Amino acid sequence: MRVLGLDVGTKTIGVAVSDELGWTAQGIETIKVDMQEHMHNTGIKRIDELVAQYGVDTILVGLPKNMNGTIGPRGEACQKYAELLKEKLNLPVIMWDERLSTMAAERVLITGDVSRKKRKKVIDKMAAVMILQGYLDSKK
C-alpha cells in the first residue's frame, strides 16, 4: 500500500510518497501548476505518472483549515482539486488536516541551516512529507 501525499497550492504542488509498508514519507518533487482562474495546468498528468511509477493506491490531499477548524477559500479549492483527482485518476482521495504544515516544514529547514533560496525550492515538497507522515503516524 503506497500513499501519495500532496500539498496543493495555486502555483505549486508538493509531492511525497510513502514506503510500501506505509511507515515513512519521502519527498519526491514539486510540480509547477497554474490553478489561478482558468486552471490551465493542474498537474494531474504528472501526478498520474507518479501514481503509476510508485504503484500508489491512495492519494492524500492536505486540507488547509483555519485555526478555528472552519474551511476557507483555500480549503475549498483543495476540496475541489481532490474531487478532480478522484474523477480523473479513479483512486480513493483522502483529505487530511494540514494546519501549520508549511510553518513546521520551514522550521525544520531553518534548523537544518538550509538557505532561504534553497528553502523556497523545497518547502512545498517538505510540507507534503509532513502532511503524509502525520497521516501515516495516525494509522499506527
UniProtKB/TrEMBL annotation:
Q: Which Pfam families match?
A: RuvX (PF03652)
Q: Which UniProt keywords apply?
A: ATP-binding, Cytoplasm, Helicase, Hydrolase, Nuclease, Nucleotide-binding, Ribosome biogenesis
EC numbers listed for it are: 3.1.-.-
Recorded GO CC terms: cytosol
**A single GO BP annotation from the record?**
rRNA 5'-end processing
| Record-annotated YqgF/RNase H-like domain positions | 1-105
Q: Which GO terms describe its molecular function?
A: helicase activity; hydrolase activity, acting on ester bonds; nuclease activity
Q: What is its main location?
A: cytoplasm
Q: Does the keyword Glycosyltransferase apply?
A: no
Identify which top EC class this enzyme belongs to. Answer: hydrolase
Q: Among its keywords, does the record have Membrane?
A: no
Q: Which NCBIfam families match?
A: RNAse_H_YqgF (TIGR00250)
Q: Where in the cell is it found?
A: Cytoplasm
User: Which superkingdom, per the lineage?
Assistant: Bacteria
Q: Which SMART domains match?
A: YqgFc
Question: In its UniProt entry, what is this protein called?
Answer: Putative pre-16S rRNA nuclease
By sequence similarity, the record places it as follows:
Belongs to the YqgF HJR family.
Q: Which CDD domains match?
A: YqgF
